[in-house]
Amino acid sequence: MTAAVAERARPIRSARIGGLSLLRLGAFGVRTRPMRSGLSALGIAIGIAAMVAVSGISESSRAGVLAELDQLGTNLLTVQPGQTFGGQAAELPVEATAMIGRNEFVRQVTATGSVDAKVYRNDHIPAYQTSGIAVVAAQPDLLSTLGAHVARGAFLNQATSQYPAVVLGWTAAQRLGIDRVGEQVWLDDQWFSVIGILAPVALTPEIDSSALIGWAVAKRLLNFDGHPSVEYIRADPNSVTTLQGLLASIANPADPEQVQVSRPSDALAARAVANNAFTSLLLGLGAVALLVGAVGVANVMIISVLERRSEVGLRRALGATRLNIGVQFLSEAVLLSAIGGVAGIGMGAVATAAYALSQEWLIVIPPLAVLLGFSGAIVIGAISGVYPALRAARLAPTEALRST
Amino acid sequence: MSEAVVVLEDVCKTYPGEPPLQVLRHVDLTIVAGEMLAIVGPSGSGKSTLLHIIGTLDRPTSGTIWIDGNDVVKLADRQLSWLRALRIGFVFQQFFLLDGLTALENVADALLYAGVPASERRRLATTALERMGLGHRLHHHPNKLSGGEQQRVAIARAVVGRPAVVLADEPTGNLDSAAGAQILGLLAELNEEGTTIAVITHDHSVASALPRQVELRDGFVVRDSTAGGAQ
After folding, report:
1. Smallest Cβ distance to B85: which of A10, A20, A319?
2. Are B118 and A21 an interchain contact pair (Cβ–Cβ within 8 Å)?
3. Where are the domains of chain A?
């Protein structure tokens, strides 16, 4: 009889479960315990949000700096006297401005010269309270060369350069306590009229703390020797580096080694790069948050397996293989993390946008950070789901069914 | 002669320990298609273990088992799972319905592991629930149903895949006598329609209402009301 029974054996195949059904199985646990699922997904979300926000904010800040650079132009060069071989302060030749101006790559050149004088609010201020304001002789074309603007009044022109008139840099005006034109300041024992106040100049902050007077009046009243202390040059944008290499010998053909040539925009560009070190530190912190979130998901999944022993037993009785059970719990963990990942990307993007707007930067959310954030969440979900899934798969059906 | 859906020959089950626990001793049992029988015995007689072994949820220590023509001892986990998905239906004392799912989804899930497409699962589940008189309860969650209704959902789930045998473990154990009687009546109706049903119970009044009784005591089959089945 047993042989006859065996002959009737039906072929045994293996069932295939569709992807949609699989997803629904994974969603089952998430859906039926929304509070717990939400909290464990939150752990992942915070980690991903931190990482997206950090890289988004640093990218936005870089974009902000670059946009600023773009606006200011990267073709501004400065020439300053360095030191002589013996270590004394060097001087630029009086004719340096003219010589530089003859070069084909130079679009505009202007000079300032430091004047050995101090400026005070009035004649009662003690001499030592200089407020750190430099008195500088300037040419009328300084403003257009630097791309600077007056906040109040007007800049020096050919006429006002002849007379005791002064234009204050933004910081200098604040330090002197002057906020309108027409006031007088006490400059080297004589009164000078304030005819203008400059708006802050981003590329050349030294102008902000200067009191600018006419070249002619400086020579006439303040013993200015006419040697330029800074040459400001706007170069042909395509030849900036070429010109940068030539400028020392153009400005001072006799002693080119006594000349310092620099490009103020380099400092800003360096600032854009300098953020990197800080960014990686914050990214590291985000990664730690993510790790904590992953431990949270694993924890929740283990508790879930313990609580759902009878579900495991039932599903085994309904015909689920060990693999089916494992995959169900694994996909649940992945789903939890994916939800956390998406929420985290959203939170990170909002944080980036809010911060970038408050700083008036462009909003940049790096696609790579979004991609890495999401795939990272999936991988983390898979890793933290492996152990709980194995535990669920290994439950003996009889044992699982007994536990009620 | 009817086809034998379950054949146990000389089945023993011993749980390791000090001393080893012999739960089933040399059990021979044949269940033929269309039959309805009670496996009856006091607690500790081994009837739950016997149900688990017939249901392929547990393996015997020795002996051979054919379920629907398959030599179960030789099958791997995947194949046993497939056999359970297609050929065996379970009804439990605790119902084991999933609270997160509606009645319909609970029943439809029984076809999930048999690879039945989703729309077909819903259609068959609806039919099975209507057969159990629960057509108006399709979208209710189990915690909104009475005990008797829950067990009817569980029966629908057990029969939705047209299994070769339905194993009911104390199906009336958690129900009052009226609901219990209704459940037994439904099982009897299903049997009349051709379903093979084994009811495991400690209750002799439940057992005596069924056409055949197999009585277990201390792991032995001590009585089988069908002469052909006993040795």
Report:
1. A319
2. yes
3. 21-69+270-402, 75-264
Residue A272, pLDDT > 80, answer no
Q: How confident is the model at residue A18, as a pLDDT?
A: 67
Q: Which residues contact A80 (CB under 8 A, 6 or more apart)?
A: A92, A229, A230, A231, A259, A260, A262
Min Cα distance A374 → chain B (Å) is: 28
Using an 8 Å Cβ cutoff, are B78 and B113 in contact?
A: no
Q: A13 touching B, CB under 8 A?
A: yes
* pLDDT tens column, B32-69: 999 999 999 998 898 989 999 999 999 999 999 999 88
Amino acid at A379: V
**Chain B contact set for A10 (CB, 8 A):** 68-70
Closest by CA position to A337, among listed A388, A401, A285? A388
- Residue pointed to by tokens 């005596």: B208
Q: What residues does each domain of chain B span?
A: 4-224
Average of per-residue pLDDT across A77-97: 85
SS3 B129: helix
What is the CATH number assigned to the segment(s) B4-224? Answer: 3.40.50.300
| Chain A stretch 289-318, residues whose beta carbon is closer than 8 A to a beta carbon of chain B | 310-311, 313-318
Would you give the DSSP letter of residue A83?
B
Instruction: Show the CA angle centred on residue A110, arms to residues A105 and A114, nearest 5°.
Output: 140
From the CB of residue A379, how many other CB atoms can be counted at a distance below 10 Å? Answer: 14
Question: Residue A316 belongs to what H/E stretch?
Answer: helix A309-317
Q: Report the distance separating Cα A198 and Cα A194, nearest Å.
A: 11
Q: Does A16 contact B115 at a Cβ distance shorter than 8 Å?
A: yes
| Global confidence as pTM | 0.73
Query: Which stretches of B16-133 are assigned E, i.e. beta strand?
Result: 21-32, 36-40, 62-67, 70-71, 88-91
- Rounded to two decimals, the ipTM of the complex is 0.92
